[in-house]
Design a protein that fits this description.
178 residues; alpha/beta; two-stranded antiparallel sheet
């Protein structure tokens, strides 16, 4: 006998799992861990700016059902992006019990250095900062959706399509810094 089970057949009927076409599959799922205390969030990988509206719509329908809070900073064409980043983060990063900070890996090096300086000034360990690809972490894809939806709303683009989704997002916003 091998570990993991016996070779004896069972009398239980086999369970048939329906095959779901790709376009009908969910973009998000929450799966309980075996201990029952935590859930694993899975968000399928796609890039917000390069994705068709129908995919975005399905994604938002699912993601906006989740329990999360966001902070949004609205910045119109900053003359000095590094100074503006410092101003915004000084007001946005106020929590003391930060476990990790993930940054989308597509940012320039000055961006990461500036964030590390701001964290050090606030007494937060820079070891908590990690540059990642959006394909690695569902939270980055969630942040991408929030940024894309907010930008469309504030730029007044496609309001007929996005207004209802932004209204749902507003329930999750705890800070808007303009």
């Amino acid at each position: 006998m091998r570990s993991g089970g016996s070779a004896q057949p069972t009398n239980e009927p086999e369970e048939v799992v329906a095959e779901i076409p790709q376009e009908n599959r969910p973009f998000t799922s929450l799966t309980p861990k075996p201990d029952g205390h935590w859930l694993v969030l899975k968000i399928e990988n796609f890039h917000w700016a390069e994705t068709a509206w129908e995919v975005k719509r399905k994604f938002m329908d699912e993601v906006l059902k989740l329990n999360f809070k966001v902070k949004i900073a609205i910045v119109d064409n900053p003359v000095n992006p590094a100074v503006e980043l410092e101003r915004v983060l000084a007001h946005m990063v106020i929590e003391r019990n930060i476990k990790k900070i993930y940054i989308d890996g597509k940012k320039p090096k000055w961006y990461e250095r500036k964030i590390k300086k701001i964290l050090r000034d606030k007494g937060i360990s820079v070891r908590k900062l990690k540059t990642v690809k959006d394909s690695q972490y569902a939270g980055i894809r969630l942040a991408d959706m929030v940024a894309g939806l907010s930008r469309s709303y504030f730029d007044k683009k496609n309001l007929d399509k996005i207004s209802k989704y932004y209204k749902r997002l507003q329930e999750k916003i705890i800070v808007i810094l303009e």
